[in-house]
């Protein structure tokens, strides 16, 4: 599929947006959110990254699903300052810019160079065609600008004036409507290539050390908390879900690694928890009672486990997307129930095992795990442990391992799962049960 020709030139396909591309290039220090006066068209700084906040909805322009792929969708979502919500303006001359996403490294593109109202904007590899060029026009309110596409003079617009998360981003004739107006909010200082600190505005602390574990800007910097909340008993999360808005929850336990600690959160079958920081005294982290989604959740110090699948429903899927976990003496993610666990776009530091299928649960199942685009930083023992005798399967892709020069971290270990006693390790390495190859693993100092 190619763009249609314009002015004798052909336009390449558009770009897709995703997880945080230019977000954290092997950082060694904290990167704070620079709260500043919103930029005007005449004063946009090409050395800065911006969150683009819509005037109508107050939500931020982002690449959907943390995508890094060409053709990734754009949408609006509650502001969290993740790299997928950060953009910079690159001058191409004559007052026009291409707009690059920090997470994916791709730019905003009017899809297939169509000119009709309602055509989506997506992300695509930069080619500087007119459908990737925008001029910034002040909106006469002293705060917002419109982004006018050079190919058809239409404006970047939140579809149907929506104020909801996930609303799509399309082109519409320039009418200076509120859903076409964007506030440009700087999120890093000039020349800084560091990462986002989600929720930095008004934060009351937060752990921002250890940022050296960023691989080529693919992962967000560890966030600071917007505020902190002590927890005395397990928080039940219904199907309607919980958006923590980067609040730190802490103190349900004494911070030990003891077994049988209470969970900080218990997710009902079908629930989603997102934008949460789990601090000291994390207990047994998150319990998932069936199908659930854990999105952009950060464990500053894992207690017993970070999250455990405890459902009993065949076909259930537990998805961990984004975020990170530190200091897990044993397991990070534990799979006790049936079904599948998906772990993607996650960074983990100082751990025992990233994933373990329960080796000695009283009721056993055939389980599967899919790992894609994770970064782990040594010390660590293993990425995956499965019970091949029970039919477990693991698929492992796009793993970056930092600080393991002697290759001590095992990639995939097979066990003989039992219902009593202790499981026995029977194999390690690629196999019919452990689906990966050397090309799926990248090592960095």
Automatic annotation (TrEMBL):
Pfam families: Pectate_lyase, RicinB_lectin_2
Keyword Cell division: no
Signal peptide segment: 1-41
GO biological process: pectin catabolic process
Gene3D superfamilies xrefs: 2.80.10.50, Single-stranded right-handed beta-helix, Pectin lyase-like
Biased composition range(s): Gly residues: 192-208
Known EC number: 4.2.2.2
One GO MF term attached to the UniProt entry: pectate lyase activity
Region (Disordered): 186-217
Catalysed transformations (reactions): Eliminative cleavage of (1->4)-alpha-D-galacturonan to give oligosaccharides with 4-deoxy-alpha-D-galact-4-enuronosyl groups at their non-reducing ends
KW Endoplasmic reticulum (keyword) present: no
Domain Ricin B lectin per the UniProt entry, residue ranges: 47-124
Major localization listed first in the record, in broad terms: secreted
Localization per record: Secreted
One CC-aspect GO term: extracellular region
Cofactor: Ca(2+)
Keywords: Calcium, Lyase, Secreted, Signal
Protein family (similarity comment): Belongs to the polysaccharide lyase 3 family.
Protein name from the UniProt record: pectate lyase
């Amino acid at each position: 599929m190619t763009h249609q020709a314009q002015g004798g030139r052909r336009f390449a396909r558009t770009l897709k947006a995703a997880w945080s591309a230019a977000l954290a290039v092997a950082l060694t220090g904290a990167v704070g959110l620079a709260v500043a006066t919103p930029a005007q068209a005449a004063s946009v700084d090409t050395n800065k990254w911006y969150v683009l906040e819509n005037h109508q909805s107050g939500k931020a322009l982002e690449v959907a699903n943390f995508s890094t792929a060409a053709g990734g969708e754009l949408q609006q979502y509650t502001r969290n300052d993740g790299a997928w919500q950060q953009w910079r303006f690159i001058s191409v001359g004559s007052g026009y810019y291409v707009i690059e996403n920090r997470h994916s490294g791709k730019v905003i593109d009017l899809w297939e160079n169509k000119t009709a109202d309602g055509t989506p904007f997506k992300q695509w590899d930069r080619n500087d065609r007119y459908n990737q060029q925008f001029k910034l026009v002040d909106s006469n309110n002293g705060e917002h600008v419109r982004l006018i596409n050079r190919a058809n003079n239409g404006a970047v617009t939140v579809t149907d004036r929506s104020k909801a998360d996930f609303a799509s981003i399309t082109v519409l004739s320039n009418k200076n409507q509120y859903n076409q107006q964007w506030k440009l909010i700087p999120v890093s200082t000039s020349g800084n290539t560091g990462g986002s600190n989600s929720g930095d505005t008004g934060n009351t602390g937060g752990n921002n050390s250890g940022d050296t574990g960023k691989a080529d800007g693919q992962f967000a910097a560890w966030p600071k908390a917007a505020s902190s909340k002590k927890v005395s008993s397990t928080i039940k999360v219904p199907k309607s879900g919980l958006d923590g808005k980067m609040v730190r929850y802490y103190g349900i336990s004494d911070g030990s690694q003891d077994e049988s600690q209470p969970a900080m959160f218990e997710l009902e079958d079908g629930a989603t928890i997102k934008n949460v920081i789990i601090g000291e005294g994390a207990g047994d982290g998150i319990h998932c009672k069936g199908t659930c989604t854990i999105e952009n959740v950060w464990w500053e110090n894992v207690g017993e486990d970070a999250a455990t699948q405890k459902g009993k429903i065949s076909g259930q899927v537990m998805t961990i997307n984004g975020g990170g976990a530190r200091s897990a003496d044993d397991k990070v993610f534990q799979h006790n129930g049936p079904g599948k666990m998906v772990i993607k776009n996650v960074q983990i530091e100082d751990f025992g095992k990233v994933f373990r299928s329960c080796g000695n649960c009283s009721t056993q199942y055939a389980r599967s795990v899919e790992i894609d685009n994770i970064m782990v930083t040594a010390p660590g023992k293993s990425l995956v442990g499965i019970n091949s005798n029970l039919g477990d399967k693991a698929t492992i892709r796009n793993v970056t391992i930092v600080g393991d020069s002697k290759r001590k971290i095992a990639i995939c270990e097979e066990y003989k799962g039992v219902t009593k006693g202790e499981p026995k390790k029977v194999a390690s390495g690629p196999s019919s049960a452990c689906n990966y190859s050397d090309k799926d693993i990248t090592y960095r100092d």
